[in-house]
DNA sequence: TTTGCGTGTGAAAAACCCGTGAACGAGCGT
DNA sequence: ACGCTCGTTCACGGGTTTTTCACACGCAAA
């Protein structure tokens, strides 16, 4: 089975569930518990940070537009002056890098948006 | 065995019983006897305080939302203006701290709720 | 080089959340 | 009626999170 972009589609994305856990190597996301873990130890994320990470992880390997993220995480329409997504991606990257230095999960696609990639 | 969230599930939570005793180091909760003990000496808790402590302790290490607590302890729906949970958490903390100074059992998860943690 | 666009990011501003003292009323025993 | 306890709600101060702003940097085209 494939997604609209031709790539693999996760169960979570398929059934539109944002409570399904995600496992990305040493990183584990448990939306139902409001928690993200690295090697079993909890990351301290704010609600928005966890929401964004969850949304990105549920669509791993797919480039998500700011429009999409704004819609799904913030529940509002995206305006070009709105930098919230960028700011939160930055904060997520910082926290993920403190927990798993050197590893890069969130990739920028200039002019389009961001992509979450579990593999090194 | 695991709960709906994938985490460990206590016997009490499993059988949906709020009468099962809980042991958390020097703290002991005996709902069936309407009593909580520290080093064998009874804590003087009101009914609501004991209910709340019991509910939290039966879900140790799990973040419980105000919604959940309101539902299970008060048997009513949570409204954002309802501060009962916070007030009772405060009173519980005060009494627990008088009995076991310095120890912190109930942790705040901003924007979500509270988590009971038996370990120091 | 200059201009424009897109992004990263520190920091200020705004909004929101939480801890807690206090007030109030209901219920109860005296 | 009185005093007491308990449960609920309100209000305010302080803390945290979210949003917004401003500027810097890299890159590509003119």
Q: Keywords for this structure?
A:
120 residues; alpha+beta; 4-stranded antiparallel β-sheet; 7 strands; DNA-binding
Notes on the structure:
The structure is a homodimer of 120-residue chains. By secondary structure, chain A is of the alpha+beta class. The model of chain A is unreliable at 1-7 (pLDDT under 50). A four-stranded antiparallel sheet of chain A has the order 1-2-3-4, with helices on one face. A three-stranded antiparallel sheet of chain A has the order 5-7-6. Chain A contains four helices and seven strands; from the N terminus they run H-E-E-E-E-H-E-H-H-E-E. Chain A has helices at residues 11-15, 47-58, 66-74, 84-99; strands spanning 22-24, 27-30, 35-38, 41-42, 63-65, 106-109, 113-116. The A-B interface holds A 21, 30, 32-35, 46-47 and B 4-7, 62-63, 109-112. Chain A binds a DNA duplex (30 and 30 nucleotides) through residues 46-48, 81-84, 86-91, 93, 108, 110-111.
